[in-house]
Specification:
The protein has helices spanning 3-34, 37-45, 59-70, 128-135, 145-167, 172-176, 185-199, 201-228, 233-239, 260-268, 330-343, 348-377, 384-402, 404-417, 423-444, 447-473, 477-482, 486-515; strands at 77-80, 87-92, 108-113, 119-120, 275-282, 290-296, 306-312, 317-322. By secondary structure, it is an alpha+beta fold. An eight-stranded antiparallel sheet has the order 4-3-2-1-5-6-7-8, with helices on one face.
């Protein structure tokens, strides 16, 4: 590689990496915990559910109860399950009856507990798992700024990955096997940055591409919508098969009684192990009432296997049917693959743990890149003013990034001590504590102190998480293991293992510093 190309790749890689480093660290750190979003939510609530996408619900009893409260006549009701938890999403459109009171024409959204049929709004059902999940794409920043910011950061991260590979291409094999911990500090950071960067390269590339797609896809498809669909976004979603067909409301009462449970059971009977995750009822109680039942086969049978049956309730006839075994097209595969490889939910706990580890490795790669930048510029021939500025920049970066670990652990403890925490209280606990720690570490003006005590404090708090859970709920991890409460047990053991590793690393860093 000639010097000109090398300098171009080097400066592009360095500048793009430094500019996005803090936000990128936040995205990957919160995103790593988001792989366990469902487990965290169930741990918070002291609940344990089957690891399936299947909605376990008595539909007829549920609709009867909801009808008494909301008057479902003429409405379209969508019941769906997004994760492995007891609650399902319920969205009810306003009634299509033009003579109905104005209140009944209002739409409703809430979460429904499948065990006791209690309903909660989004704010009432908010959880730490939801908070961390949304933090990883900056949803707490007012929409759409946070979404677009995370999307463009992912896009710049893609530039950093590509230029990093080009930068190391000639020595990519030799550098991968080179690690010299006893050499000077810059060598240590460079070797670990390169080796771990190469280990996590496929993971990082996938998340850079899919993250950018999910967050800024509106900007990507906007020209297509304007040019090909003349601004009709609904037509685009119809062609992409995101929308179900809409059936006309006839304003005539359905003569025959109906049972949604029978239609759901009939759908499940069509394909072995079929898991139903969505049921939509259009024109409830009307003569033209239709039920759309959707689901898929487990991933170990077929990776993309969406199925759907549409019933006309009046005569029980099947209006449309999509076979999950034979009718999935290229479009279905593309839509499914993008989501599945991003969420990493198709390989059980093994894939989630691997994804978490790779996410934390990426966080280290980000931090080591910042440290390489600092050490490379901490030279005696550089003006003292620039050296102090560079050091201040890195101190801010590390204070913001590394303090996320103890803050996250503290948020888990607070969630148990003051359960249930409202959305505003979760915000206060997390962001105020985070701000205080950042200010504290900035006042200390010591990078080594920040590094060491973020690991130690996070480790100590991590050990306290299962203790807090046991004291507050009596769900000690040996009891949850015996009772087969997988999600609760997993989070407790997860924190014990994570805290042990980070405490071990903190003492190793302390020893290395003393030897140096």
């Amino acid at each position: 590689m000639n010097n000109r190309n090398y300098n171009i790749y080097f400066h592009t890689h360095t500048v793009s990496g430094i500019v996005i480093s803090v936000v990128l660290f936040i995205i990957f750190f919160a995103g790593s915990f988001s792989f366990f979003r469902d487990e965290i939510i169930n741990w918070e609530r002291g609940e344990s559910v089957a690891l399936t996408k299947e909605i376990e619900l008595n539909y007829d009893a549920t609709l009867t109860a909801l009808d008494k409260k909301y008057n479902l006549a003429g409405r379209t009701i969508s019941i769906s399950k997004a994760g492995n938890e007891r609650r399902v999403n319920v969205y009810m459109e306003g009634t299509k009856d033009t003579l109905a009171p104005a209140k009944l024409k209002e739409s409703q959204f809430f979460y429904l507990d499948t065990k006791n049929l209690k309903t909660q709004t989004y704010e009432e059902s908010y959880s730490l798992g939801e908070f961390l999940y949304r933090l990883h794409f900056l949803a707490q920043v007012p929409y759409p700024v946070g979404y677009y910011l995370s999307g463009f950061v992912a896009l710049f991260f893609l530039f950093a990955i590509v230029t990093g590979v080009l930068l190391h291409w000639n020595k990519i094999v030799s550098n991968f096997y080179t690690f010299r911990p006893k050499e000077k500090l810059k060598t240590l950071w460079t070797d670990s940055h390169t080796a771990l960067g190469m280990i996590g390269l496929p993971f990082q590339f996938v998340y850079a591409v899919t993250g950018a797609f999910f967050m800024i896809k509106l900007l990507i498809v906007a020209p297509s919508v304007m040019a090909l669909y003349k601004g009709d976004q609904t037509k685009l979603y119809d062609d992409l098969e995101y929308n179900n067909p809409v059936f006309k409301f006839e304003n005539k009462k359905l003569a025959n009684p109906f049972r949604i449970n029978e239609l759901v059971a009939k759908t499940k009977g069509n394909w072995k192990d079929f898991e139903i995750y969505s049921v939509q009822i259009q024109n409830y109680g009307d003569a033209n009432m239709h039920v759309i039942v959707e689901g898929e086969l487990p991933y170990d049978q077929k990776f993309t296997a969406f199925g759907k049956i549409i019933y006309k309730v009046a005569d029980g006839k099947i209006i449309a049917k999509k076979d999950p075994v034979t009718d999935n097209k290229y479009l279905d595969v593309v839509k499914n693959v993008l989501y599945r490889i991003h969420f990493g939910d198709y390989g059980g706990y093994a894939l989630k743990i691997i994804s978490f580890v790779l996410g934390i490795i990426t966080c280290y790669v980000i931090i080591s890149g910042v440290m390489i930048w600092l050490v490379a510029r901490d030279k005696k021939n550089m003006p003292e003013k620039k050296r102090r500025f560079n050091n201040s920049v890195v101190r801010i970066y590390l204070a913001v990034c590394l303090s996320m670990y103890p803050v996250t652990a503290l948020a888990f403890i607070a969630n148990k001590l003051f359960h249930p925490l409202s959305q505003s209280n979760i915000y206060n606990v997390y962001f105020i504590t985070w701000l205080l720690l950042i200010v504290f570490f900035l006042l200390k003006r010591d990078i080594n102190f920040t590094n060491k005590w973020c690991l130690i404090s996070g480790s100590v708090l991590g050990f306290l998480i299962p203790i807090a859970n046991g004291i507050c709920t009596r769900n000690w991890f040996w009891k949850t293991f015996a009772a087969d409460h997988t999600q609760i047990f997993f989070i407790d053991i997860f924190w014990l293992v994570l805290a042990s590793i980070t405490l071990f690393v903190s003492f190793k860093l302390k020893k290395a510093k003393a030897q140096q």
